[in-house]
Write a structure and sequence with these properties.
Layout lengths: L2 H18 L3 H4 L3 H29 L12 H15 L1 E2 L5 E2 L1 H12 L4 H13 L2 H7 L4 H15 L3 H13 L2 H15 L1 H34 L3 H34 L1
Antiparallel strand pairs: 1-2
Length: about 260
């Protein structure tokens, strides 16, 4: 492993452990709890795709006329990840993005998709992220999470985008989802088979392949630039804190629901 990657991972490990062991997972006891979790988490699933495409736009040529941009190695890494995330297969072999697969899992579970759909429709129409989050009444923690992601996107610094993509998403997700998938199917298999497939697919793809590609991409983009690595560390820490805040919001809503 690249020494700078190893150092960064060591710095963020306490926050990573806090997310992997977050108390929200044990609070999910029935489908009503799971619906709340999914209605928050779907916004992170969506903005992940936006972060992914922003990286592809900055690291490859996605316009005409075509010109070679950057390193061919980095182009390969991001394009490989895009193929898997944007056009994977569901359990029936039908091509779908991971976001579309997540929406399918929400529908099977009975979770409400109207809020994410309203948000996306508003965003398509007015092109204003902040306004769309507000008028769609997106929960504060989910709204703040998306807002942070787009601040990183709008920085137009591909090495920062890659750091958040790597340490806040790809390298984190397999261990995080292991905390959910082991027991959830036993509790309500008929309602969560699609979600189980989604989680296991992420564990399989991200743990075995995408996380390694993302680590290599971040190492390539930061190179030997100390300032880049310092910025990457700071933004990775902030990304993990935003994830904790998101999970805290889910925890509070489920807890409040169970009190009533």
């Amino acid at each position: 492993m690249n020494e700078r990657i190893f150092q960064l991972k060591s710095k963020i490990e306490p926050l990573r452990k806090e997310i992997v062991n977050h108390k929200v997972y044990n609070l999910i006891q029935d489908t009503d709890d799971l619906k709340i979790f999914m209605q928050y988490h779907v916004f992170a699933v969506w903005d992940f795709m936006s972060l992914l495409k922003s990286l592809q736009n900055s690291l490859t040529c996605t316009s005409i006329p075509w010109f070679p941009i950057g390193s061919a190695d980095t182009r390969f890494l991001i394009n490989e990840i895009v193929v898997g995330e944007e056009s994977d297969v569901d359990s029936y072999g039908v091509r779908k993005s991971h976001f579309e697969l997540y929406l399918d899992s929400m529908c099977q579970c009975g979770a409400n998709t109207s809020q994410i759909e309203l948000f996306l429709n508003n965003l398509k129409n007015n092109k204003n992220l902040e306004q769309s989050l507000k008028i769609s009444h997106v929960p504060l923690e989910a709204s703040d999470f998306v807002d942070f992601t787009f601040k990183v996107i709008n920085s137009q610094k591909s090495y920062l985008q890659s750091a958040v993509f790597t340490f806040g998403r790809e390298d984190l997700i397999p261990d995080m989802f292991h905390s959910i998938v082991n027991d959830i199917y036993k509790k309500f298999p008929e309602k969560v088979s699609v979600f189980k497939y989604y989680l296991e697919r992420h564990i399989e793809v991200d743990g075995d392949h995408h996380s390694h590609l993302a680590l290599e991409m971040t190492a390539n983009l930061c190179g030997d630039n100390d300032e880049f690595w310092e910025e990457a560390e700071r933004v990775s820490i902030e990304a993990l804190k935003m994830r904790i805040k998101l999970w805290d919001g889910v925890y509070r809503e489920i807890e409040n629901k169970n009190k009533n």
